[in-house]
Design goal:
single chain; about 160 residues; alpha+beta; about 25% strand
Length: about 160
């Protein structure tokens, strides 16, 4: 059943930002940050953003591996899912370390998982804020609440 909160696209960007002031770390001098940003868009046009900051040697991830996992695993798994079904999204996230181990040889994807969690939680929050009890949106909120509860109920039966 299609809803206004179904995910229709996941865009992935690599962002390289120069630091105002370089700083020394154990493996050299950091002069810029290189992060991965995702934009998750719903069928109603609402966008949630997430950011991953994979930084070897602090994580086993690299910018390249993060993009690879996002493109190969997360984006296809997110398309068509309802943002309001957080249990299904979190279950998918829990399975990714096993899948990425098979594909990439890495057993840990905390930055990658965090960027997806952040973007979908942002969408969930935007939805909740947009359906506050106001005279013009009260009926829509009630409808969404019942639809969501029905969906959740059916999932567990």
């Amino acid at each position: 059943r299609k809803t206004a909160m179904d995910i229709v696209s996941v865009s992935i960007y690599v962002v390289r930002v120069p630091l105002v002031k370089p700083y020394k770390v154990s493996f050299g001098v950091a002069t810029h940050g290189e992060n991965v940003v995702i934009a998750v868009k719903t069928s109603s046009g609402v966008v949630g953003y997430g950011e991953a900051d994979p930084l070897p040697p602090f994580t086993s991830e690299t910018v390249q591996s993060t993009v690879h996992v996002l493109r190969g695993l997360f984006a296809p798994a997110l398309i068509g899912r309802c943002v309001l079904d957080r249990n299904a999204i979190m279950t998918m996230l829990d399975k990714v370390p096993l899948l990425s181990a098979r594909i990439l040889g890495t057993h840990s994807t905390p930055s990658t998982q965090y960027t997806v969690t952040l973007s979908t939680h942002t969408l969930h929050t935007k939805h909740a804020l947009s359906t506050k009890h106001t005279p013009t949106t009260h009926k829509a909120h009630t409808h969404n609440k019942h639809t969501h509860n029905k969906h959740t109920h059916n999932k567990h039966t």
